[in-house]
Amino acid sequence: MSLASYPALRPRRLRRDAATRDLVREHRLGAQDLILPVFIQDGQGLATPVASMPGVERLSIDRLLPLAEEAQGLGIRALALFPVIDGSLKDPEGCEALNPNGLVPRAVQALKAALPELALITDVALDPYTSHGQDGLIDDAGRLLNDETVAVLAQQALMQAQAGADIVAPSDMMDGRVGAIRALLEGAGQPYTRILAYSAKYASSYYGPFRDAVGSASNLGKSDKKGYQMDPGNGDEALREVALDLAEGADMVMVKPGIAYLDIVWRVKQAFKVPTFAYQVSGEYAMLKAAAAQGWLDHDAVMLETLLAFKRAGADAVLSYHALDAARLLQHAR
Ligand code: PBG
Known about the structure:
This protein has about 325 residues and is α/β, with parallel strands linked by helices. It has 12 helices and 10 strands. It has helices at about 20-25, 60-75, 105-115, 145-165, 175-185, 210-215, 215-220, 235-245, 260-270, 280-295, 300-315, 325-334; strands at about 35-40, 45-50, 55-60, 80-85, 120-125, 165-170, 195-200, 250-255, 275-280, 315-320. Strands 1-4-5-6-7-8-9-10 form an 8-stranded parallel barrel, surrounded by 9 helices. Helix 2 packs across helix 3 (about 105-115) and helix 4 (about 145-165) packs across helix 5. The longest helix is centred in the middle third of the chain and has 18 residues, at about 145-165. The protein is globular, with a radius of gyration of 20 Å. The relative contact order is 0.14. Ligand PBG binds near residues 125 and 210. The site of ligand PBG has 11 residues, from helix 6.
């Protein structure tokens, strides 16, 4: 560090004009940093709004294709698919999660046929499919059965990989699931399927609008996910979770939610130096939309500032429902 001080050093010199600011900026946001999560449903010509997520719709596959094409055209490299499963297909075991002709594999096949270069991330967890809304199988007391759930999740991940998913993303927080998925993929001739592990996923109240969107809120009722998702009071534990997932064969790790957990993103990136993603979740999206609708915040400016903050904290990519809007703005800014 230099010993010089004012007036030899005037930090404001570097802030004086836009050209200089552009030259010295340390972190930048680009469309390639953004992953667009999408909600999909069965049917034709459907685009059902999600009330708590203005601007987000549950799309049938035919409506998803043009959106995916636009995203790719704007420089977004990946989509994350979340299914809205009809209530009649839900049961306590979440059997529909393994159906090779189910909504997710059909969406993957349609997207891969139309846009082979767009990376597809599929969610590995049972909550869209279970009648109780939990991420796995439960015992009579409502507790998640870890090893039984892991066996099903591995099958779900393999089915998704065989349908063409590039990246499988276990978001369930069961112990040992990454290792089980990796072993099954390797044994089944899918060695290049990447695993994006939701390693530090917190039992957060920011997931409310997502649970509305996929219809798991009503299934979940008054129960919660604190028996498997992480306690918001813990930071060191996130590092242990990441270490385990990497040892079990994860290629990338994720921290979730985003803005309230940027300290965790920072610590994970500093400690492991591996591809680290962050998920700006539904509640974060809803908060900005609500404030902007009141005229209390400048939507576009706050959106871009927030997404940039993820990069500064060390995230390599950000899952965000703002991805399309942000990519459009970034294109105009060129
Ligand atoms: C569940 C899952 C959740 C989200 C992604 N996958 C919700 C939950 O754990 O209940 C939340 C994403 C969001 O809020 O945007 N496997």
